[in-house]
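Module 6 notes. Inverse folding takes a fixed backbone as the condition and produces residue identities as the prediction. Think of it as a translation problem where the source language is geometry and the target language is the twenty amino acids. Below is one complete input and output pair. Work through it position by position during the lab.
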């Protein structure tokens, strides 16, 4: 409840959402505040404490795909002098875990911690296109919010887009969640069964020419990382 409320919750509001008494919600919140997991401001509204973020970072570091992808992505960031990111999809959200940015001929590693609807960004679409039918249906069957004029906010539009992504092997974002005039492209990282476990992307591309120039090396790095996870296109074609 607290994670879903950016403006925080009062004791009364939490009691209403949980369908419980104010005394019960007060005790729950007091315990969380005392343990350092929840913050309470001067207006007695409650918010998640940043400790949850540190726990999330530790959880992300346990993902094997990060250790495998990081050196490959660092190499391509240095070669092409363009920032890149690694993301996963959890539920209906794309969670950006790490990014690498060019810095004096090297690649600087940064931890990220923000989420975007899976259907409204390049990494999310790249992952969804190579996910199970059940995963795709869970997104397609939900209401799709239109964030910008470019957002694919109908089942038909998004279905066509995911099929295109699956055919070409990469996804493009031309301002579907936040239109700042730049583009992003992403490719899925596939496991031995051919299902996407993550995505890597180039972002901050300023024009169509830059976008098209960086798609081939991005596709290549996606194939290299996927092969490191056991994915092989020839085997996949045989076993389906």
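Target side of the pair, the amino acids:
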């Amino acid at each position: 409840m607290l994670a879903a409320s950016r403006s925080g919750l009062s004791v009364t509001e939490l009691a209403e959402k949980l369908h419980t008494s104010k005394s019960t919600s007060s005790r729950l919140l007091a315990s969380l505040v005392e343990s350092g997991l929840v913050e309470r401001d001067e207006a007695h509204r409650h918010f998640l404490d940043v400790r949850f973020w540190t726990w999330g970072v530790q959880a992300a570091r346990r993902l094997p795909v990060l250790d495998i992808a990081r050196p490959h992505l660092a190499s391509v960031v240095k070669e092409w002098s363009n920032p890149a990111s690694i993301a996963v999809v959890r539920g209906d959200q794309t969670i950006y875990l790490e990014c690498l940015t060019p810095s004096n001929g090297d690649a600087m590693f940064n931890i990220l911690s923000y989420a975007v609807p899976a259907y409204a960004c390049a990494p999310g679409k790249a992952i969804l296109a190579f996910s199970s039918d059940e995963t795709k249906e869970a997104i397609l069957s939900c209401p799709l919010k239109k964030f910008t004029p470019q957002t694919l906010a109908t089942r038909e539009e998004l279905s066509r887009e995911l099929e295109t992504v699956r055919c070409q092997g990469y996804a493009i974002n031309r301002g579907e969640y936040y239109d700042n005039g730049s583009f992003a492209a992403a490719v899925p990282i596939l496991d031995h069964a051919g299902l996407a476990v993550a995505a890597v992307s180039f972002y901050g591309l300023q024009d169509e020419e830059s976008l098209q120039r960086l798609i081939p090396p991005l596709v290549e790095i996606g194939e290299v990382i996927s092969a490191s996870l056991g994915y092989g296109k020839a085997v996949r074609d045989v076993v389906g």
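Reference fact for the lab report: Residues 11-49 form one domain.
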